[in-house]
Structure formats: C-alpha cells, structure tokens
C-alpha cells in the first residue's frame, strides 16, 4: 500500500470535512457509501493454532488419512440455511446458521509462522519494523470507548500478548485481562485488609502527590494517569460482581459447558455491564493434546474441540437472543490460518493461508449462512475473496466505526483497516 503524502492527506481531510452526506470509501470509489451497522459490542472468539475450515465450517467430501487421499475428516450435515453445510460435530450451530455467516474466503500470505499470522489476524497487517500497529480490539476501543459508565472498553479473557495490544494508540486503549472465570482480574481485587476508609486515604495521598507534581503533557504519563483512574473506578465490588457466574441459573451455566463455555457466559455478562470489545481465547485445555494446531495425531481428537466450540457458541447465540442482545452484539470467530485438504505423514494437517474461514454471528447483520466459495478441497478461492482488511472493515462497519478513516502513528497517517472494504451484502436491509 502506498501512503499518501502529508499534503495529499491534509487536502483529503479538508475535502472530507466540507462534504455533505455519507462519506465515500477510502479506496476511491466515491459512488459507494460508507456502510454502518448498529451493533454496540463485539465478542471475538480466538481459536489459537489454526482452525481447519475443511473440518468445520467449509466441509468437503471426505478424504482418507491412511492412504493420504486429500479431503475432509468428518461427514457434513445440513443447516438451517438451504445449501449450506457444516461439519457433523457442529449440530447446534447447524440449527442457528440463519443467524450466522461463515466467511469462507478469508486469506493472507502467512503460512508457516504462527506468531506472524496471529499478529496479522489481530492487527490486520504484517509486522512492521517501524510501527507497532494496534489490535482490532484497541481500534474499536479507541473509536467507540466503553458502552457503559465504569466499565473498561476492552477485556481479554486469556493471556496477554502484544498482538492484542494498543500499539501506537497508547496504553489508554489497551485491555483489561483475566485468565480464569472464577474471579475477576487480580489487579482490581482489593485485599480484605484494604477497607473503604483505607482506600479513601490512599486516594487522598495520591491526589496530593499529583497536585504537588503539577500537570504534564508527556503522553506516556497522561496515559498512565488515565489507567490509574480507570483501575480505581473498577476496583470496587460493584464491577467485580460481573465475574460472579454463580449468580446465573445452573441450567444456563450447564448449557454453556466447561471452562471455555463459562468464558463465553462471562463475555455476555461483560457486555451487559458496558464492555465494548471482548476477546475470548479457546482452547487452553488442549482437549486433543495439540489444540487447533492439528499436525499428525493431534487431529484424532480434534472433534472434542469442535464439539466444545459448538456447545459454547450456540449457547451464547441463543442466550444473547433471549435477552434481546444478539442484534447489538457481533460474535466473531477467528484463527491465524486454516488447514489444507492434504494429510501429513502422521494423518494430520499442515497450515494454509490461501483461504480459510472466519465466522460472524448476530450484530444486526443480514446473515446468509456462508459467504464466498472455495474449490473442491477448500484450498483455493472460487468466488468472493475477502482479505483480512476487508474482514476487519466488515467488523468495524457493523459496530459503527468508520473503516475509511486514518489514524496517526506520530505524524504518519495510517488507514484504520488498511483500506479494507466491507462485505456489502451483510449490510443489506
């Protein structure tokens, strides 16, 4: 991508400021209006390791790992959308595909490097030696802020990582994270010995120190001060009640399933509280010994992961719908890349970035079960390719973020989604 000169950028900004009506896309197609949805929240489910699209949401005729015949590992089943099938281990999701779109033609050029591909699927860009790009969660937090008072805009349920971070946007737009659902973030939990009176005195001492130090214009210090303020507002018992999952009916908790399901249930409680963007990581338990990175024998028990995903996400969709939150909440399922139809020497699969599936659900979109078409092995794109910037632009548009705008890394203008164009059909009324 060629960056605009500063003069070109400023001229474009002045023209945009004087425009009347809907802004044109940054790609230069002035006839195409900015697509904007009405969703308020994003729950992003991350399948670290590389979910095999051919064994989940883009099933193909079965192959044979013993004879190394390329193809699917499981049988396919019909869904609520005519002509759309999914893997046999997704029966609950099959019945909900009228509220879901499996985007089957996402693609990028990263194949054999998990870290680089993970970065690509969180920031929408290749790793740069000069700019640390923000994650999608931080971009949306930056643009929309929290959806409620006394709630963080961005929560990560999983282990922290720079690819999930705010990059050049600064610490203020980073995430609050926790690694278990049994309690809230440890850093926000006051020890029992810290009574409200002691906390009040400490805050008074801090205020006195700030006053004596005077104001600062250093961005890092300003961001740090903002982080302290937010931590204080979130450290009380009111916000921490959101983590008390035992307040939910046992029947509902059981419907979500195990630890991953409880993370999904917690994500619903967090959006009710006012969190804008939540990432939920799956799977830390490695039910098959390998997670989603199913080389060799790791594929033998891959169905356990798929079944756990089916249980938890279907429960999340129906729970949100029962609470009239599904149209307000976009569920996103992503992975760093997919898997090829060929089997390796151990009967598993390698990596594939040429085409793979990411999933969208809810969010008020006009879902169609599946978007895009791949060949007989789910290896090549036949119709409707979707780049990572395009996928990011679809998410941003759904939650009311202008995917055509530019942000600044210092004085350098950076397109917010690397000039991605949303899947327009999903915004059709």
What does this protein look like?
This protein has 429 residues and is an alpha/beta fold. It has a domain at 32-131 and 278-384 and 395-427. The chain is 30% helix and 15% strand. The chain is built from 11 helices and 15 strands. Strands 1, 4, 5, 6, 7, 8, 9, 10 and 13 form a 9-stranded mixed β-sheet that branches. It has a two-stranded antiparallel ribbon with strand order 2-3. It has a two-stranded antiparallel sheet with strand order 11-12. α9 (259-273) packs parallel to α10 (302-322).
Secondary structure blueprint with pairings:
Elements: H1 6-18, E1 41-47, E2 76-78, E3 85-87, H2 91-94, E4 100-107, H3 114-123, H4 136-144, E5 154-157, E6 176-178, H5 196-213, H6 219-234, H7 237-240, H8 250-256, H9 259-273, E7 277-282, H10 302-322, E8 329-334, E9 356-362, E10 369-371, E11 373-374, E12 381-383, E13 386-387, H11 388-398, E14 406-409, E15 412-415
Parallel strand pairs: 1-7, 1-8, 4-10, 4-13, 5-6, 5-7
Antiparallel strand pairs: 2-3, 4-9, 8-9, 11-12, 14-15
Helix pairs in contact: 9-10
What's the SSE pattern? HEEEHEHHEEHHHHHEHEEEEEEHEE
**Oligomer type:** single chain
The helix fraction, in percent, is 25-40%
Straight-line distance between termini = 32 Å
Structural class: alpha/beta
Low-confidence stretches: 1-31
Q: What is the strand content?
A: 15-25%
Helix tally? 11
Q: Specify Rg, calculated over alpha carbons.
A: 22 Å
Shape: globular
Main pleated sheet:
9 strands, mixed
- Please tell me the overall pLDDT: 88
Number of separate strands = 15
């Amino acid at each position: 991508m060629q960056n605009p000169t500063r003069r070109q950028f400023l001229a474009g900004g002045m023209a945009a400021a004087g425009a009347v009506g809907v802004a044109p896309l940054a790609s230069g197609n002035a006839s195409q209006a900015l697509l904007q949805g009405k969703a308020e929240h994003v729950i992003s489910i991350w399948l670290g390791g590389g979910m095999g699209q051919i064994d989940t949401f883009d099933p193909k005729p079965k192959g044979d790992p013993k004879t190394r015949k390329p193809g699917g590992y499981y049988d396919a089943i019909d869904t609520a959308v005519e002509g759309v099938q999914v893997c046999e281990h997704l029966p609950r999701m099959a019945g909900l595909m009228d509220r879901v779109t499996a985007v089957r033609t996402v693609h990028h050029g990263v194949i054999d490097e998990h870290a680089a591909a993970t970065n690509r699927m969180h920031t929408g860009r290749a790793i740069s030696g000069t700019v640390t790009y923000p994650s999608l969660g931080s971009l949306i937090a930056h643009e929309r802020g929290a959806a409620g008072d006394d709630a963080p805009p961005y929560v990560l349920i999983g282990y922290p990582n720079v690819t999930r971070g705010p990059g050049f946007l600064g610490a203020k737009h980073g995430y609050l994270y926790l690694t278990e659902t049994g309690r809230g973030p440890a850093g926000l939990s006051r020890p029992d010995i810290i009574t409200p009176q002691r906390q009040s005195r400490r805050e008074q001492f801090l205020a006195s120190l700030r006053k004596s130090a005077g104001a600062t214009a250093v961005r890092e210090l300003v961001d740090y001060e903002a982080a302290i303020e937010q931590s204080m507002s979130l450290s009380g018992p009111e916000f921490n009640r959101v983590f008390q999952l035992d307040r939910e009916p046992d029947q509902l908790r059981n419907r979500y399933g195990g630890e991953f399901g409880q993370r999904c249930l917690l994500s619903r409680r967090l959006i009710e509280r006012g969190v804008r963007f939540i990432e939920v990581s799956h799977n830390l338990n490695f039910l098959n010994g390998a997670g989603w990175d199913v080389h060799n024998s790791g594929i033998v028990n891959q169905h356990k992961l798929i079944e756990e995903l089916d249980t938890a996400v279907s429960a999340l969709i129906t729970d949100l719908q029962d609470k009239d939150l599904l149209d307000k909440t976009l569920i996103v399922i992503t992975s760093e890349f997919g898997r090829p139809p060929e089997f390796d020497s151990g009967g598993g699969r390698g990596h594939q970035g040429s085409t793979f599936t990411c999933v969208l659900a809810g969010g008020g979109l006009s879902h169609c079960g599946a978007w895009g078409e791949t060949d007989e092995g789910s290896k090549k794109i036949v119709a409707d390719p979707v780049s990572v910037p395009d996928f990011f632009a679809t998410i941003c548009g759904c939650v009311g973020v202008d995917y055509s705008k530019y942000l600044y890394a210092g004085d350098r203008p950076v397109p917010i989604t690397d000039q991605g164009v949303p899947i327009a059909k999903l915004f059709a009324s």
